[in-house]
Amino acid sequence: MIARTGDLAPETDGEIITALGDPTINSSDELAFNGAKITDSNETISVIWVGNIEGFSPIVMEGDVAPDTGTTIRDFSGPNIRPAISDTGEVSFFANLVTDDGSQNASLWTFSDGTLRLVANDNESAPGTDGEIFGGFLGPTISATGDIAFSGDIVGDGRGIWIDSMGTLTSVALPGEIAPGTSGETFLSPLESVAINDLGLVAFQDQEQLWRETDEGFDLVLSSGDPVIGYPGSTWIGFTPVKFGDAGDLVIWGGFFLDGDSTSGLFSLTIDGSFEVLVLEGDFLQIDSFDFLQITDIRANQSYSQNLINDFAFPFLASFSDNSSGLFTVSSETLIVPFTEPPVAVPVPEPSTLALFATGLAGLGFMMRRRRSMQLRAA
User: Fold this and answer.
1) What angle do CA 89, 91, 96 make, to 5 degrees?
2) Is residue 265 part of a domain?
3) Domain enclosing residue 334, as ranges
4) For the whole prediction, is pTM greater than 0.85?
5) Is 306 left (phi over 0), alpha (psi -120 to 50) or beta?
6) Is 288 among the domain residues?
7) DSSP string covering 266-301, please?
8) How many Å apart are CA 129 and CA 148, to the nearest integer?
9) Tens digit of pLDDT for each residue in 84-115?
10) Domain count, the chain
């Protein structure tokens, strides 16, 4: 266990942890997570902590001075508020700032070697635009090498994608721009849900499309309304990249219409066009020798996958028909059996194929479904 509410907050004189947010983790098993503590004067303070199983420490908290801004940090609440941590221990996070006159603005920061550095700030110039300014942020995500990608609002002109690399902020994709390397397709605002790989390339969704960056430009991977290969009559209604590999492979959360009803799941899209279903709503998990539970909802995002997965496993949060839930990992080596109803008996695969990772359920879970692998489109 790393931390729990009710525990003493580290590096304090008896202050208590009152809230904990979703963590991210790097390859050294370091965690970054936000939360809150309550002081002796009954004041609740927002905090971002970093640490591991041996202990954790605050890196920034409500009331701290925000360097080079003339403001203080108000809190870390906002859209997609989870901090991100790289393999080198650099942490990037979203913060609301408050000025002496009480006005508030959003900002993005990075923390490395004991130092806070501003990445982007409301009301400041947005690089790559004609003098427009930032008006809010989503993200950030961070690569193993410390490149920070995020989605930013441009006041009066939609939402785009930027990367901070060693203190240099550069636009990657802006609404209305023609996508480099395409035959004239344009980016449609809002551009968001950005994932970054360790080569500094990004994948993201816009209003209707899923994009993947390559050395030559951008690939249009999917569009809303495209047919779902292997499901006749089905069309995509939404998708979000949740992992972007160095080889260009994507794991996405996607939703589509199936037999008149909407369903969702996790899918693998490789750079050569291979398409594979990893897990769908309606699949069954074998929780123990006699217990099968049907998935009613699937959630996955970059906080679960941030430097946590490898080539063989991807984490997701599943809710079940009995109102329980758990955090699992799924891989392309998942057990091959029909998923439409729980089988009477199944062979037991190796424990590494699908492991119950954390909350809600005990033991190992195994996916009850048939693997489907097919060609999506040429890369």
Assistant:
1) 165
2) yes
3) 224-379
4) no
5) beta
6) yes
7) EEEE-TTSEEEEEEETT-EEE-SSS-EEEEEEEE--
8) 19
9) 999 899 999 999 999 878 888 899 999 999 99
10) 1
